Amino acid sequence: MTETSAPEHITDPDEPAGEFDLSDPAFITDPEAGERWLGGPRPVCKGKFADGSDVWVATGYQDVRAVLSEPTFRSRPPGDSHRESMLSRGIPEDIVDMFDSTLLTMDGDDHMRVRRLVTRALSARRMLTLTPAVTAMAHRLLDDLADKPEPDLIADYAHPLAINVICEMLGVDEHYREQWREWSETLAQALRPNPEQFAPAVRGMARVTKELVEARKAEPRDDLISELVQVHEEDSDRLTDDELVALAMVLVQAGHETVRNLIALGVFTLLQHPDQLKLLKDDPSIAGRAVAELVRHTAPVKHTFRRFATEPVEIGGVTVQPGEAVQVVLAAANRDPAEFGCPADLDVTREHNPHLGFGRGAHYCLGASLALIEGEVALTALFERFPEVRLAADPAEIAPRYLLAMQRLPVHLSPETDER
């Protein structure tokens, strides 16, 4: 494996910070490179985006928080479009405009107009009412695990729980869900996409979402897509055709990918920290704090979309000029020793935990409350049902790479002595 440009910890403040290179394949796949960055320098430094373009990279907590919160930074680049970047990464030209109409790429009034349409449906209070249904779904999946000699907790638990919860809420028919999983795995490789797989996956996802929207126009149901269709039918100025399809698509994609990663990383990390797992088993009432700490420590989402300065602004000792991009690294900000005591340590009892795992500001994750509920339910149900669960593979072989999600999590559900 080639050496990445991620620098070792810098002790001399005058020493150059190096580059954070998202286009370097070794950096994407090398866990040691990620760890060096998490424990490395905090100044804003120069870097490269996945397409090779220049960015400023913010890794310190206060710098990341400022970029996410300040209105001087926006999601859209100069020219008011992500079109060129999306085309370069394999999104087909005939649907790129739709992909440029998502909440993730909107700013200002347009962003708030669309965001308000789903904020109420995904409110923390409403999400709490889903807890019994999420719990029942988790236990059904655990029932199925009991008959498997070596279940994969990603394929058999984390993924089906995450995809079924968000699809039930939105109204995605069951026969689409397995196909969506395959598309999601392809899109998860967006930092280094395979052109032969990426474009068909994007097209398929767009096609199915349009089919769902048309089906709900013809026959509304009690689901979120039907609610959005009704808003569109009543007033297309509030939600255009492209925005409707893009919003439904992003909610499905983002609503399960992050949760899948949170559950998988949570289980893997707790099994690597038996002292912390024991604390959770002994006192399930700390599950909320434990999941928040796992979000901070494992970083299911490593970084956000780039932000672009609209005027000269000083961040971390450098002046970002209008039009220049800043890449914030949530994973590094959440390990900043200036904000968190013993940041490299997993502490499921941590009380002061203002992590940025779900972002901040106008683009704060809409599904944060649901993700936390799913994570809490998934972990507590698993360890209550199978308290002796343990890994069935060498941790080094299945450990997540820095910017790639875990692919498998094989386990034994019973103690080793029971298998002899």
TrEMBL record:
<dbReference type="InterPro" id="IPR017972">
    <property type="entry name" value="Cyt_P450_CS"/>
</dbReference>
<dbReference type="InterPro" id="IPR036396">
    <property type="entry name" value="Cyt_P450_sf"/>
</dbReference>
<keyword id="KW-0560">Oxidoreductase</keyword>
<keyword id="KW-0408">Iron</keyword>
<keyword id="KW-0349">Heme</keyword>
<dbReference type="InterPro" id="IPR001128">
    <property type="entry name" value="Cyt_P450"/>
</dbReference>
<keyword id="KW-0479">Metal-binding</keyword>
<dbReference type="InterPro" id="IPR002397">
    <property type="entry name" value="Cyt_P450_B"/>
</dbReference>
<comment type="similarity">
    <text>Belongs to the cytochrome P450 family.</text>
</comment>
<protein>
    <submittedName>
        <fullName>Cytochrome P450</fullName>
    </submittedName>
</protein>
<feature type="region of interest" description="Disordered">
    <location>
        <begin position="1"/>
        <end position="39"/>
    </location>
</feature>
<feature type="compositionally biased region" description="Acidic residues">
    <location>
        <begin position="13"/>
        <end position="22"/>
    </location>
</feature>
<keyword id="KW-0503">Monooxygenase</keyword>
<dbReference type="Pfam" id="PF00067">
    <property type="entry name" value="p450"/>
</dbReference>
